[in-house]
């Protein structure tokens, strides 16, 4: 349900962003209004602004941030803009500046944590541990400043679930964050999602089903319902190894997922592949790749399924396409071996 603050922000910004003269709208929109607009169009982890509004938002923030370099909120806005653009390093630098300018801002610390973890995959092995610690501390500081910050508690729970024990991982601490989420406003969905993950990790399948069903029930938007169903279905496919049980959940997921969601087609393909239906799986993977040509998992799985289905020529082309697009992928070596094998087979 929209908050009063959200309604006020959208009411203030929408006329400016939708004005017929884009240049006039851009000039009328302040950088601070644009920052609030970005925050209101975020699920707490990513930012989804309609494409036709993106330029005006970005320009307003960049213009005012350049004119007011000591404004912490505009520094945060620059971090959001850079994260929206996929420039994780620049996003982190702007978030660090926002924290320095406003050390008591929960939003600044929270988005610093988000930008750190968004870019951690591109860091070298020696830097990953220090970055993970930096991100965790940013979330902890957010919670210190605002104990009811649902996004920070969920993000911290994800750290505890994913990190090895030697680096601070702890299922117990993840459960504590989940229980805390259940007690705060707007925290029920994320709390149930975390408890579902914990149950799947512990292979307590009935508990997992109950928690993900509760998360679906707690979701107030279709994107969150899709998230709950996606996580539930994936746990059945990947952890429980029960693709048949996942199929009805995938179809419920399809009812609330956007038509451009490649993950839906990947899940259908993966379930069919696990059920030894490679030709059917290949068609689903093709649909995923039609939406997202760089989808690594679908690209490799398509090649596997075509080979399993006896389409050597198609498999050869798919493996070669995978190698071309994903030279740095850990499966590139297996793809190269498959190319040699198939070329020999085809003569």
Helices and strands, with pairings:
Elements: H1 4-17, H2 22-28, H3 31-40, H4 51-67, H5 72-85, H6 88-101, H7 106-118, H8 125-145, H9 150-162, H10 171-182, H11 188-201, H12 205-218, H13 222-239, H14 243-256, H15 262-274, H16 278-291, H17 296-308, H18 312-325, H19 332-346
Helix pairs in contact: 1-3, 2-4, 3-4, 3-5, 4-5, 5-6, 5-7, 6-7, 7-8, 8-9, 9-10, 9-11, 10-11, 11-12, 11-13, 12-13, 13-14, 13-15, 14-15, 15-16, 15-17, 16-17, 17-18, 18-19
Write up this protein:
Among the domains are: 1-34 and 48-84, no CATH class; 136-145 and 157-162 and 170-183, no CATH class. Helices cover 76% and strands 0% of the residues. The chain is built from 19 helices and no strands. It has helices at 4-17, 22-28, 31-40, 51-67, 72-85, 88-101, 106-118, 125-145, 150-162, 171-182, 188-201, 205-218, 222-239, 243-256, 262-274, 278-291, 296-308, 312-325, 332-346. The relative contact order is 0.04.
